[in-house]
């Protein structure tokens, strides 16, 4: 199984974000199984992550997503951005 990459993240207020890229080594998505919130989102004055790295999706609890298999993401890559007031996986596609 390949770890999908976060190809773009527009959440500029996150400590791991620089220039529309996520630099955490890996993120976790889906605190609530029905909602694809980025659980790694974190506001801090301390910049986070490794600027030479592009985040992968280490785990995803959004079991309702068509790309979710055994609580892992099988999409080729994902995009993250604000929906309302939360940082969400924009690639989420409900099975229903
Ligand atoms: S595409 Fe679906 S399975 Fe992959 S991280 Fe987003 S919500 Fe989770």
How would you characterize the overall build of this protein?
Strand 8 and strand 9 form a beta hairpin. This protein is mostly beta strands and 96 residues long. 0% of the residues lie in helices and 34% in strands. Strands 1-8-9 form a 3-stranded mixed sheet, with no helix packed on it. A two-stranded antiparallel sheet has the order 2-3. The mean pLDDT is 96. It has one domain. The structure holds iron/sulfur cluster (SF4). Iron/sulfur cluster is lined by residues 29-30, 36, 57, 60, 62, 65, 67-68, 73, 75, 78, 89, 91-92. Iron/sulfur cluster (SF4) binds next to strand 5.
Topology summary:
Elements: E1 5-9, E2 17-18, E3 21-22, E4 26-29, E5 56-60, E6 68-69, E7 72-73, E8 77-83, E9 86-89
Parallel strand pairs: 1-8, 4-5
Antiparallel strand pairs: 2-3, 6-7, 8-9
Bound molecules: iron/sulfur cluster.
Iron/sulfur cluster is lined by residues 29-30, 36, 57, 60, 62, 65, 67-68, 73, 75, 78, 89, 91-92.
């Amino acid at each position: 199984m390949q770890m999908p990459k976060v190809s773009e993240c527009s959440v500029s207020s996150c400590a791991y974000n620089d220039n529309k890229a996520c630099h955490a080594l890996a993120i976790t998505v889906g605190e609530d199984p029905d909602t694809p919130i980025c659980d790694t989102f974190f506001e801090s004055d301390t910049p986070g992550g490794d600027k030479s790295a592009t985040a992968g999706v280490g785990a995803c609890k959004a079991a309702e997503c068509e790309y979710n298999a055994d609580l892992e993401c099988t999409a080729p890559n994902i995009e993250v951005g604000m929906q309302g007031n939360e940082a969400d996986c924009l690639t989420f596609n409900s099975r229903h």
